[in-house]
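Late entry, written up from scratch paper. The run itself happened at the end of the previous shift, but nothing got recorded in the book at the time, so transcribing now.
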Amino acid sequence: SACVFSLSALAILVNGPDICSGRVERQYFSKWGTVCDACWDMRAASVLCRQLNCGIAVSVVGSDWFGEGSDEIWADVFDCDGNETKLSECSISSWSRAECSHRRDVGVICSPLALHDGLVQLSGERQCEGEVEVFIHQVWRRVLLDSWSLTESSVVCRQLGCGSVLNFYGSSSSRPEHSHECVTGFQCSGSEAHLGNCSSPQTLNCSSTQQLSITCCRSIRLVGSGGDCAGRLEVFHSGSWGTVCDDSWDIKDAHVVCRQLQCGVALSNQQVPAWFGPGSGPIWLDDVACEGNETSLWSCSSPGWGKHDCQHKEDVGVVCSGKQ
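Output as recorded:
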């Protein structure tokens, strides 16, 4: 269960251009170590920036920004509201260290600082959704819907620590006070950690077409294998992660999960109960029935949240082909 962990308060940003950007390192019982990116989000980043007197959080980034650390990897999940003044005020829960490596060391960029091209922010009222803005040539610019795809959307959601793509769409901008120049032409493979690694876009007048908005959804994950594309299926609902029962589960259901996670196609449908180990907490779904062509698990039918006759020894696992 989550608890207040006062010893987690001492944290710094290292290997960046200044003290307000860099790889996150924190001290626990006199040992310094890095933080796994699976355990960090923009709310925790906002608290850390505030704690360091570095203004607001601009972005959560991967190890390719500020390099990989060494020594310990701390796998504590900070459950912050985002308005705390220091990390010790956030409750934490634990994450499996087996799923983390220094390739997943998280970095944070706070403002004020010399901003990096390729930073992304979403202008919506809720975290992980809204109109997309990218920092290009020292200016925040809106992104046009033209030539944008699910591939680029997945990079943005990953860069922001917001999980997978729920949808993306075009709309008239609600922020006329911003620059009249927009960007278009991003081309990503889908494996990039941030938009700065994708092909360079071009700038043009914003009035020509609709501006891009994205809704990300960190609500599904595969755990227990050491990678992102295989493991016990867990879904997030009503504030907590839970599992899915393997009753009626088949390869079509697995295909939908792999598609939603941008992990290719399902390689197999393991019928061995709890193939990746039993989970804990609620069992959120049972008797899931997908056609196989849905874009997310939420489009499939089921009896409803929490309705099941299962035990955790029946938690379903999924094996996907890998990142697309």
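The chain has three domains: 11-111, 119-217, 219-319.
(Scratch paper discarded after transcription.)
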